[in-house]
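Researcher: Structure prediction, please.
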Amino acid sequence: MPSSRATSRGAASRAAADAPDFPAWLAGLSDDALVRVCELRPDVATPPPASLDVLASRLRLPASTARAVGTLSWPELLVSAAAAAAGADSGAVPLGAVSGRLGVDDDEPVFHAAVARLRELALIWGEEGSARMVPVTAVAVRSAPVVAPHPGEPAGADLEAAWGGLSSAAAGVLEAIARGRVPAGALGPGASGSVRAAAVELAEAGLAELTGDDDAERVVPRAHALDRARHGARADGSTLLHPPAWATPRAGAGAGRAREVDASGGVAALDLLHRCDSVLAALSIAPAATLKAGGVGVRELRRVARAAGLEEAELPLLLEVLAAAGLIAVGDAEVGDVDYDSVWAPTEAADVWSAREPARRWAELVVAWWSMPRTPWRVGSELEGGGTLPALGEPVGPPGPTERGRVLKALAALDPAAEPADALLPEVVRWSAPVWFSRAGARPVSETVAEARRMGLVVGTVATSAARHLVDATHGAGGSGAGVSGDSGGAVVEDLEPILTAALPDPVSEVIVQADLTILAPGPLTPELAAEFALLADVESAGAATTYRVTETSLRRALDAGRTAAGIREMLARTSVTPVPQSLDYLIEDVARRHGRLRVGTALSFIRCDDPSLVAQVLGSPVAESAALRSVAPTVLVSQARPLDLVEALRAHGFAPVVEDTSGAVVALSRPAARVRESRTTRAPRVPTRAPTTSELRAAVAAMRSADRVRSARGASAGAYTGEAAIARLHEAAGTGTAVTVSVVDAAGRSSARLVVPASVGGGRIEGIEPDSAEPVVLPLHRVISVSDVEPTR
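Model: Predicted structure follows.
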């Protein structure tokens, strides 16, 4: 009986003999099919291939193949794994044999959809009704986090019977493996006796296989047992290719569920805008200093959070989004007479953004979040070299758009009425992107969903219409999901704006004034009324309904801006659907009576008051020393502090002064707002890599066909691979262990040929052995002229 190694070597030899058929199959595709291949695998189309042979070589490169396998969903990965297990890399395998391994009928729609997707990606090829794989694809699939079903393994009723007979320890081992990133569990020499006994029990029940030796023993569950541990018992008629129960819409949730989700997302969007406004206001008064190594440190984050009235944990997301939207930047700024060097402060674009409609402002923030390279949830994570990752620093970790695209794509694929629990979110994403999940794990899933909830894109575990539009814009038609920017970003903003506008309630012009000094706005206020209430009261909670609180400080702010007590009472009486309570009337009268009794001028500044006792009280307070006050008359004090500084110092000690001009009229002073000087901004705009357009791909396909026709007319020699085709052939030979003839040129320009069995190709060289002498061979990759197959001996 031949050994498994000999069998695999024979299969590899047959695969190598069949390899030239792949370029021929590719050449037989229609132009539309070739364009589709290049759209789904844009890395093979940049730069445009010189010929279809070059395209075929690029499609067979290990890096490109691994990238394509990484885009597969769980059903597509299962189909490819079943095809590889059936020997598709050794020759044509009937699709019926593949579907039989998966326990589905030949005409099952989900099976044929997966096969069609694999053909579009050129991972499966060959005649209709059969499946073939190039060896590189089979290697990539076998290293993917998937287990192909074995013929005769327990399924359906047999699986449930075997599962019911398992001990709790054996079931626990299966469930632990199912929750992990890869479908296998390592035992090793340190495994306890109970774990080893549970592994043996699983193997005896036919639910797992034990592989490896004692030092590297692994438990590999069977495909159906792994699915049972992850998703629970399957309903009748449901197979490994069908979505689990969490994809089923909830009973009683109709079409109105999508509208409810969008409305809740709109509430989150309004709250996001309020918090961003708070951050911009805080940075306008006191910009955030940068660390020497770049970014914003923990102390500055805490200070800005206190100034904005926010939790420290939510600030990194807001700062990163504002920076990505160009609303804050690092540079030099001025606040009054104070100069700041290398600080984060609002840009002039922030003033334009703040004046826009809420839907437009939110859409710009969403597009910025979707495309920014950094991932805010990683702020504070420990770095390998010591310390923690700061906010607004250089990008660290995987690209943010990739993570967001994978997670939101998985949620957008679900029916809005299907609401999986938070604990099932990792499995939802694993179903959509198993290869990415095996590398990233569960934490990026939960953290990305948490950010999307704050952005108003996810409600619970349901994607809003805006999130679905984002996914379609970046993942549809072969999109890479790498984010949106430039002209495409502007188009997405234009599309998102009406989506949020439809989700938001209509603006209101009436409020409810309550006896506890709060004012409830049952919806977004009209712009004019919102501006008035921004002066009169402080926002206590924002959302679809906004709660304002009237305080002495907020009333002084309105009076400082020129409002009068009578005008405030009239506005409240006009806009409130309930009578204005006496408690608020008393507060307005009390603040207005004390407001302006102290008059501040410039001497640099002075204080005057008709009440000498009040002047004496100020002169005896701590503010007299800090502001360098001195008396020039029983009712007049002068100071070397600026009027605004003196007013703020007096208010901090319980007084209620106002500022007057030379005529005695009350004027309103406010702190200058910091704005970054754009010429000193250090962060350069990010230029994304652009994928070829459909028209460009059609032109490239036409050029490849023309080059092949010219080559055929000239009678190009067959059997020799050059350029990228030579590299791809060397990778295939390394994967299959077959010998090839490698022609190289030395430094003097002399050419020679070596018979080599490549072992590895990379790092700028080829390492292998000479088959006749078994001597090691190392050849520089840049000196390779061509690679030829070895003619079989007769």
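Model: The chain has five domains: 156-239, 256-503, 512-594, 599-679, 720-789.
Researcher: Thanks, that helps.
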